[in-house]
Each structure stands twice: as C-alpha cells, then as structure tokens.
C-alpha cells in the first residue's frame, strides 16, 4: 500500500496553494468526466430503447406477413376442398 503525502493546513509558501489548486483542478476534471459519462449512459439507454422499439416493430411486421401467407394457404386449401367435393357430387 502506498504512503500518501500529507498536505499541511498551514500555508508554507506557495506549495500548499499549488497542491490545493492541483486538487481542485483534479476534482473539477473528475466532475466533468462524471457528467460526460452520465450523458453517455443516458444516450446509450435511449439508443437501446429505440433499438428495442425498432426490433419489436420489425417482428410485428414479419408476424403479420407470415399470418397473411398462412391465411392465404388456408383459403387456397378451403377452395381446393370445395372444388374437389363438387367434382365428387357431379359424378
């Protein structure tokens, strides 16, 4: 474990001021980074929500198309059955 340097509270020339300015600059930089990362997280969440919506819409459109095709096949079978039953009646 590294030993941390202690900063004296009493001013010792310009060193304490320099150290304090450095700490304040680092703190401000960290706050900016946290704001930036928070914004990135929000943007990512919004993008993910949009993707979920797009996928759901695509899935719904595909489901509807498959359902239409299935219903068309059923109608064709029904017509074929009706036609074959009529042929049997006329013989």
In short:
The protein is mostly helical. It has one helix at residues 15-90. The model has no long low-confidence stretch (mean pLDDT 87).
Rg, alpha carbons: 36 Å
Unreliable sequence segments: none
- What number is the mean pLDDT? 87
Shape: rod-shaped
Percent of residues in helical segments?
over 70%
- Number of DSSP E strands: 0
Major β-sheet profile: none
Distance between the termini: 100 Å
Query: Which percent band covers the strand fraction?
Result: under 5%
Determine the number of helices (DSSP H or I, runs of at least 4 residues): 1
Structural class: mainly alpha
Order of helices and strands: H
How is this fold's topology laid out?
Layout: H1 15-90
Can you put this structure into words, describing what you see?
With 91 residues, the chain is an all-alpha fold. Helix content is 84%, strand content 0%. It contains one helix and no strands. The radius of gyration is 36 Å and the shape is rod-shaped.
Question: Tags for this entry?
Answer:
91 residues; mainly alpha; rod-shaped
């Amino acid at each position: 474990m590294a030993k941390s340097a202690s900063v004296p509270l009493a001013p010792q020339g310009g060193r304490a001021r320099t150290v304090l300015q450095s700490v304040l600059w680092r703190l401000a930089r960290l706050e900016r980074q946290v704001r930036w990362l928070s914004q990135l997280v929000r943007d990512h969440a919004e993008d993910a929500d949009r993707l979920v919506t797009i996928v759901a819409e695509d899935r719904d459109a595909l489901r509807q198309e498959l359902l239409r095709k299935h219903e068309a096949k059923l109608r064709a079978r029904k017509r074929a059955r009706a036609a074959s039953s009529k042929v049997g009646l006329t013989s």
